[in-house]
Amino acid sequence: MRTDVQEALDRGAAAPLPRTLIDILRETTRQYPDASAVEDADGALSYAELLARVWRTAAVLRENGVRQGDRVGIRMTSGRRELYVAILGTMAAGAAYVPVDADDPQERADLVFREARIAGTITDAGYRPADSATAIDLVGADSPHPSTSAIPVVAPPSIEDDAWIIFTSGSTGVPKGVAVSHRSAAAFVDAEARLFLQDSPLGPGDRVLAGLSVAFDASCEEMWLAWGHGACLVPAPRALVRSGEDLGPWLLGHGITVVSTVPTLAALWPQDAIENVRLLIFGGEACPPELVARLASDGREVWNTYGPTEATVVACASLMDGTGPVRIGLPLDGWSLAVVDAEGHRVADGEAGELIIGGVGLARYLDPAKDAEKYAPMPTLGWARAYRSGDVVRVEPEGLIFQGRADDQVKIGGRRIELGEVESALQALTSVSAATVVVQKTDAGLPLLVGYVVPDEGFDRQVARGELADTLPAPLIPLLAVVDDLPVRTSGKVDKAALPWPLDSGDTGDSSLSGTSAWLAEQWFAVLGIRPGDEDADFFQLGGGSLAAAQLVSRLRTRAPEFTMTDVYDLPRLRQMADAVDDDAEDDDAEERVFSQPVPTPRRMQWVQTIAGLPLFVFSGIRWLLFLLTASWLLRLSPGFEFLPDVPAWAIIVGLLIFVTPVGKMTIAAVAARLLLAGLRPGDHPRGGGVHLRLWLAEQIAQQVDPVGLAGAPWVVYYARALGARIHRDVDLHTIPPITGMLDIGSGASIEPEVDLSGYWIDGDTV
Fold first, then answer.
1. CATH of domain 20-333+363-374
2. In the chain, fewer beta carbons within 10 Å around the N or the C end?
3. pLDDT tens digits, residue range 183-205?
4. Which residues pair with 453 in a beta bridge?
């Protein structure tokens, strides 16, 4: 007899109504045609514009021979609108998109596209498939603002067509292709809509972060959290997403309100980075309770989600409040879950077992044999088709709790990794006689892939890492640890628990480091699990990756607040990094010394400002005088006011045009600024010096003249250009530009009144 919680887990009958992802996009466009659908560095595309481009792309694909049911490989630069148009256009043509990260090795891209048997490739990075599949370059093929009146007629996909095929790590060393139908994908989008923000649903006012690779199935959640609700998808630069703390200002500056990410990345963000975020979704890996407690707050929903690629991104979810254990919750509407013992029978409440997934979200493997094995019937449950997840969970009335894996599969940074794939690559290395791979944890709590290798003669660590980079994506390349032999159990299997960790010195030699280098070596050790032995050690050759670099930057900023992710990549060697930390610290000390003893404004500057300030009031006086003379002129048109001053009408009109109209006032302010600041260059200048005086005088003239009136008036852009600023097309400028004219605003930008564009400031004795 099933308990209440077991009944709640089996909810397959509650599936959303069948439809396709293209149906969802069309419905959203019907409701919100003018809302922004995607916004990149070139500006925003409305839903109407996006859908028009999607249909044109579908037509181009059809013209290139792509047919319903085909598969199209996509390998494009991340963060650009063209990538998303290509994805949607492929689906609109009835084909499934097969994404490969642009940063992945070409050998892996060739392997994935070959396994998927693609009909063509959409690319912008110069990639061409190894076989005879067509390569289609759609970038730049669209007009900037396609008209919806001339949309080509293309038959949309059916619910049974595949929407995407995403490859996951394979235990045999070959990635596994997982195909998800439109029925499953659309059910996932609709089921999540029933979960999140029910009191204040997502809509056109929301902006969704797109920070994950499209080769990672969680990117599908990002995209359709936006496109399923009329919100705007906002891609972030990949390097910025990996940087940790540096992403915070970007999230604030771009008004991001919805974030779906992995806990490892979110743990690097400061609290204020997500102050505007009202929906925060975790997934991809186990979520630490302390992270939830830190980020959960009033006005923000925080969810923990669980789901393998094989069950369409997310199978279950739990709303969290920062108290109690972190759960993976109960199934989405249409998904069915069961927790079984070794014989396939449901376990009792409070017990643990393997999680089995059924229902509308089940995908399929491209490999029929693998599909039949992993999606076999479960007679004990009465399910004709079920996916064995390999995950161990505990059944509780409030929802499931993740307990770990029953096999060698792991998740790092949200990416599912079969250790067998990495192990196969290690064992294929030149000059390696034996190898194994395990996941270790650094002092900083970062999970790390570590490959233990027994070297043959001629082994070289750098050569080995180069060989791995030719076959494995960057997240799968392990830290290489050289050992004399691999410990084994009596069964003959490698005893992974006996492998050395941390790698305190190992093959790095005796350390003679001191000062900042020694301190820095400890920070490396905390995030890498291996201590560098000399100042020539390279952070990335020791196994550092983007997440480790982000953790390192957070630590280094206790001494060097200006240290960035770029510095780690530019200065990977210990000595270089130590010197940069010292320089940064010295600069901070020098600034503190300067700020602590500010020098009063020079007396001569005070006298010059006083004398120069007197004529400035002439500008205000002229305006008031003109108003009075205008009133006098009007009154003299009536009998009895002949005693008032008689001023020619033409003089009043000219005066008003120059000193009252926006065009005249802008001309006065801009000409004065150009003359006073001629030859001014960016840089630091003494407070109270000639440059400071010129800046002050130009600002005072502008304030007295009041060139544009209220900030945000339509002529602000013209005033900025008159000052010398470079303002590109479609810019909404709602704040006063810098008097220096040193401003460059890209196309499509919108700058609100609260933004400070003054262009210069005073720090102590420096302008």
1. 3.40.50.12780
2. N
3. 999 999 999 999 999 999 999 99
4. 435, 482
